[in-house]
Amino acid sequence: MPQHLSPALPATGAIEPEHLEGLRGDGARMAPHWAVTVSPPARHVSPVAPSRIRGISVPAASADLLAGMSDYGD
Question: For the whole model, what pTM was predicted?
Fold first, then answer.
């Protein structure tokens, strides 16, 4: 299978507009290679009452990762 390579993005931490077009083009070229699977419709599951939700914990590494991310739109 041929590989489509694009130039490396600058390490600015943000996707620059001119690179966004390149990423969109890369995605369009890869789309035919992605397999499409159709799953059967999911069984309807009733929501759980909030009073029944207990003991939820988040690993420290996950919490640190999320805390280090910027909010959308920064």
Answer: 0.27
